[in-house]
Amino acid sequence: MKTFLDWSAYDTYGIGDAYSGIPATGGNYAKAVAVCMHSRDCQNTGKGVMCPSYRITGDKAHSTEARVAAFKAALNDGGDAHAFADPRLDKAMDLCVSCKACKKECPSAVDMTLIKTEYLAQRHEIKGVPTRTRLFGGVPEWTGRHRGLLRRAILLRNRVPGLAWLTERLLGITARRPIPEPAPAPFAATDSAAAEAPRGEVILFVDTFCHHFEPEVAEAAQQVLEHAGYHVRIARPDPADAEPDRPLCCGRTYLTTGMVEKARSEGKRVLAAFEKEIAAQTPIIGLEPSCLLSLRDELYSLGLGEKVGALGKQLFLFEEFLAREHQNRGLRLQLKPLDLPRAVLHGHCHQKAFGVMKATRKVLGLIPGFSYDIVETSCCGMAGSFGLEAEHYDASMLMAEIALLPAMRAAAEDAPLIANGFSCRHQIEHGAGRKARHIALLLRDALPAA
Fold first, then answer.
1. I want to staple 341 with a disulfide (CB 3.0 to 4.6 A). Which of 107, 289, 396, 415 is the partner?
2. Are residues 114 and 155 in the same domain?
3. What's the whole-model pTM score?
4. 53 and 121 part of one domain
5. CA of 418: how far to CAs of 52, 164, 347, 422, in Å?
């Protein structure tokens, strides 16, 4: 069976283990599906993230276990060329938000996010890629090549009555929420000045969303790192890159929309850009959880060679890096107290799935006297483009209303709301009318006056 992703990591699954019901077709991909041991942890409604779609419906058909059953049936009943066009899969996967919770919270570590990517890629091969998918998945290209046009189009759509309704009718983009607007100017990629940097050099990987939509996050992160004693170099494409002026991209938007070849191209650009850094073992710091952690996880599935593993060891989220440096390398950030009420912290699904929340808590603890509460939430419901899709808007808001939005509304009027995910911040602003902030902005505010 031809697959778009590399499933060789599952080659030995099922040998001498208790896995049962591996589909007759599908090879290693079928084994990845069959790791489910029916523990039904995906049908929990207590602590944790999994499974957001089950939590809002109470219907087992929208759980990870049911999705596994649908894939098994499709792979058993259909030939390789037709299995992924099975309507049972469309129904089963409809409310999957690719939150990555099952890989963390399921005892069998079912990676439904990656399974969904392969499913979408196969489906596109059979039916073609829908226009809306090309628009959402192609955000890195649109912002990199046609930024001005994209910004004007979004501003127009968000402000002119009737255009939102028209885009919903034509493209299926919900009229009930604004589309995130690119900032007036992108992030100005300027390396640190050639001054003494006692803690050495780091590279700041500025993702598409920080670069084009919220450049102030990247600016704040650079300020904090420079204050801490690092020489900050902004990640740039390799000089031989076909598009040297287009910022690097993790490929996440392409993966979640099943546009695997596009994601693979972005992965190759990243590896080429960091080839020398891999040899030098220079720390590479990212800001958007889903972007940085995609490089550390999904990049393996694109079949790009051994350098992926070496690169992964150098990739850190901003808060991970600061926590590591504080714990192991004597970093002592000189921060001032912030005269603020008790804050509210929401963890991005990928922060939770990859165990980053501990680092987030540790870094917040570096601010003298700073206090906060962590909201016990599932997925925020925005989940990239999921909450912008007309047919999924209601489900998106139901996910947010489980705990996230009530907690944000209940927070004191001037209390900081902290959310490191771009989609999460968009959902909070839309649903609660409050602006949440990235941790980098909070730390920058706590820097002592120059």
1. 415
2. no
3. 0.95
4. yes
5. 21, 29, 8, 11
